[in-house]
Structures are given as structure tokens and as C-alpha cells.
Amino acid sequence: MTPAELRKLSAEGKFTDPTTGYCDGYVQANMVVLHKEYAEHFEEFCRKNPKPCPLLEVVGPGTSLTSKLAPGADLLDTIPRYRIWKDGECVEEPLDVRKYYSEDLVFFLLGCSFSFEEALISAGISLRHVDEKKNVSMYRTNLPLEPAGPFHGEMVVSMRPIHRSQVAEACVITSRFPEVHGAPVHVGYPEMVGIDHVEKADYGDSVDIKENELPVFWACGVTPQNVLVKAKLPFAITHAPGYMFVSDLKNADYATGV
Amino acid sequence: MTPAELRKLSAEGKFTDPTTGYCDGYVQANMVVLHKEYAEHFEEFCRKNPKPCPLLEVVGPGTSLTSKLAPGADLLDTIPRYRIWKDGECVEEPLDVRKYYSEDLVFFLLGCSFSFEEALISAGISLRHVDEKKNVSMYRTNLPLEPAGPFHGEMVVSMRPIHRSQVAEACVITSRFPEVHGAPVHVGYPEMVGIDHVEKADYGDSVDIKENELPVFWACGVTPQNVLVKAKLPFAITHAPGYMFVSDLKNADYATGV
């Protein structure tokens, strides 16, 4: 299935699965949609915290059609599942958000670590959550974010157990993807960043860390959703976790200096 | 002082200090000198273990003059201090080795981590042993080397404490210097590589590892000396630790993909 086909089926309500594992090689993006009055601060927040909030494209106000990630794709229905947020709480998980459209909405598309996982696997670095067909393990940390307006909080990280002999290489490979979280924010010693239960993920699924493996932590795209909850905005739309916007760009387009 | 001046003074017996801190920006090299009958296996050993034994130049047999690292420099007297090894034991530390020259000697010049330390410091990653004017901390490990002929053993590593927020960057920066040890061979958890006393270095000086720092381990140029001792060759020459060959090449010449 091509990204265009997946988006068309999503718009018709015929594709309703998580997008992990579909359209290998293509960039998938997180989405956050806000009224214009909050958009400026949110964009500033992303620029100040590029590792957890790597901005790939800003769409609107006045349109819901992307021009960079998939020219002409409508962000109101091409994602398989959305979340509607009111006062910091998720109130609905609809298959499209056409009825919520207004001229003053701004759509933020943010990078996702799916993009660098492909590069890790190509380099022979196996990823347990992929092998076990699980969601990646994610944790709240005590790593502070740079605040902007109502947006503030701590970073959420994803964790992948990596064999000790491949940790440096994993840092090097993912550093080549600065627009999709980049190099790890922390290696080993979970307690140093405020994680006291690495065996139990805060979000996603838990995986074993085996002998001779280190837990390696990357900034995670769940961070902005977490920040949205804290900001308790009257209204926001996001993608539903795991149900991403599938773009026409290749992951390789986001690799630099290779 | 230029590298040529330092080498000239060394040859005249007027420069007899360790070379650390001299000729900033220029590549310094470890040296191993063997009779031809062992040279082929030693070269194979270096090629099989490029991280601890990064070969920069092979000189001879039939000459002691370098052609790549410092064209025309004589390896018999341009290093400030040498070691003479007999049957695996250091028997002398002379200022030159002219009297030991024979037509069948082969000179190996090997990369040294001084080269990437400059790049780390330039990136704002401070190195405690440099700040405290100490020798870097080095440790024996249980990391096996690929054997070749009489040469075998385990890797020696150098350790630098790095703040947790800079570990990934340190991996990325040093990965750009594949000919001078490259990226770390291990990060954190000293016991995973057979080091059970990280607070006490096996070679060099010990330094503190402070809160929020991880010990980061790189393959070390002391490895070949250690292997030589084990091989108990009837005769070998090396530089004395800390008294390196100072070349005319710049460290930046060994950076790739920057």
C-alpha cells in the first residue's frame, strides 16, 4: 500500500488500524491542532525544544491541506484516528475531524522516531519492541522543557535496549536524523533522569533489558501531547497514539551527513 | 614550538619531556618497532583490531624515515624518549635508538586519542584529566582482541567521565575520527567489560566521576604495548608512554564526514 492509498482509505473510513508497519520507508508524523491564539506559543515551544518536538510542517490557518509532507493531503480525514481534547481531557476518538474545522485552526506536524528505527535496523541493531511487535516503551522524566506561554513540563522519552557494543553506533546513526528526535538524550542509568521503574513503561509496552544491554533513551513525540494535557486548553485535536499521518517523504530524506 | 622544532630538539637530546600539551592541533602517534619476521603478523593484528590499533603509517624495512606523517623525519631519534623491550620486559628508556637500528626493522605508527580530545573540548565537552593536568585513566578489560600469530590478548581502554547530557554527542564527535580510535567501545557500567574498580585506573591517573556523569570508554593505544609484553618477543622498541611521535599532520585531517 502506498501512502496515498492509505490516506485515501483513511479518508473513506476504510482504514482504521495503527499505522506502525505500513508504508515502510515513508515518514510518519505526529499531529497537534490548535486555535490560532495558542499556535504562536506552541510553535515557539517546539522551536525551543526541538528534540522532543521536531517541527516538520505547519499548515494553516485558513487551510487543512499539507504542502510539504504530502502535497494536497487533507489533515481533517487522512489520519486513521484522531483525538479531540477539551480542557486537557480526551473526550472522543473519531475517524475524521471534518466537523471541527474552523478557519483559525493551525496544524502542526511533528517528527516521529519510526524514521530512525529503520536506519538502526538496517545497521544490524535489532529493536526488541519491533521484534516482539509491541509499541515502544515510553517514560516520563525529570528533564525540564523550555517553557513558552501556557506550554511547559518535562520530557517524555522512548527507550530501546541496545547491546553494549552497539550503543555508540546507535548514537551516531540517530544523530543523522536531527528532524526526527536525533541522538539519544540519555544512555543507561534510568534513575539519573527520574525514571525509577524502567521495567514498567509509563506509556506503550514494557520490554526486557537483557544482560549486556543498556537502556538508551530518545526524546519522544508523546511529549507535546503530555504538555497539551498540562496546558488544559479549551480545545485541541491530535492524532490518536499509533495512528499517524503517513507522508509522501522518505525517511532517508531526513538523514543528514550520511 | 612547531612539530619540526620539537623533533629537531628531541634528536639533539634537548627535548626530553612528555609531548602532551605541545604542538596543539597536530597528530601525535604511538610507535611499535619489530624485526621483519614479526612485522607481518603485527600488521595483520592491527588490521583485525583497528579500534585499539589504528595504523597510521608503516615505515621500513630498509629505512627509518617517515614519508606520510612527517616526510623525512627519522624515527630513531625524533621521539623524546623510547623503550627497549627484551623477552617482554622493558630493559631501558633511552633518548634515541640509533644504535639499535638494523635493516630488517619495521616501524609502526599508530593513532592516539589526543587527536579527538581536541575536538571534544572544542565542542564544549570538558575533559577532567586535561583540566587537572593528569594522564588519562586507562583500564584492562575482558574485551577480547582478534589474534594474529603471536599477538593476542584483551583490549586496554581509556576512560573519560562525561556529563550525561553530552554522552551521545561525545559518541558522535569521536566517531568522526575512525583512524584515532573512533567512537567509544563502551558507555557506563564498567563491570560489563570486566572493570571492577573504575575509581582506580590500571594505567595513567585516576579521576573522579561526579554526579550526573557516566564513565565513557574508548579503545586505547596502550593495547599494542600490552600485547607486545604478552607475546614476549626477543626484541622490540616502542615510544615511552606519554612521549609520542609528533607529526606534521593536523588532527582535523583525520576527521571524516564533518
Automatic annotation (TrEMBL), chains A, B:
In its keyword annotation, does this UniProt entry include Nucleotide-binding?
A: no
User: Can the keyword Metal-binding be found in this entry's annotation?
Assistant: no
GO BP annotation list? glutamate metabolic process
Q: Which InterPro entries match?
A: D-Glu_cyclase, Putative_hydro-lyase, UPF0317
Write down the SUPFAM superfamilies for this protein, in alphabetical order.
PSTPO5379-like
For this UniProt record, the keywords arranged alphabetically read as follows: Lyase
Q: Name one GO molecular function term.
A: D-glutamate cyclase activity
Source domain of life is: Bacteria
Family to which this protein belongs: Belongs to the D-glutamate cyclase family.
* HAMAP family per UniProt: Hydro_lyase (MF_01830)
Please give the PANTHER family that the UniProt record associates with this protein.
D-GLUTAMATE CYCLASE, MITOCHONDRIAL
Q: What is this protein called?
A: Uncharacterized protein
Species: Dethiosulfatarculus sandiegensis
